[in-house]
Design brief:
single chain, mainly alpha, 6 helices, about 0% strand, globular, transmembrane helix, membrane, transmembrane, DUF1440 domain-containing protein
Amino acid sequence: MASEWEVIMKEPGMTMVRNECNSMTLRVVAAALIGGTLDLIYALGVNAAYGVPPLRVLQYIASGLLGATAFQGGGLTGLVGLASHYALMAIFAAVLALAVRRTDLRRLHPLLLGFGAGTALFIVMNLIIVPLSQTPAIPPLPLGRLGLEILVHSLLVGPIVAWMIAGWAVGSRRRVESVGE
């Protein structure tokens, strides 16, 4: 008996199955949640080592949208920061999923893809997003901490998100190719 996606694929010219959309959405959400949580654990931990409380870190994230007033908002602006953090990670995961789906990036090993994607995430966030946001300027990071930030994004956050996304893209491509035979 044919599965649901095989029946849907019988229509001429159909290139995406209904379950594939659900799978992509679930993988993007899961990748955003897991990657975002790991990134946040790192950010909270490293800032705690410098004496910065977790609420202040979340308010700093919220200040990208709210400006300096985020630091007077208490827990509510901390929640805005938390939501902003996960929203940005979801955008990262969705853009990566689209890039993998529509280009030859799917041929790369997920760890290599993740290294590049994590490095790109760090660069885009720190050289484009944060400077264009309302986040108050902070002093440059010490070189050791800057290196650690890059490593965490390049070797942890990016690869985990890419592994989850690339697994979806490779699996869905195989399903579509096997139905077309």
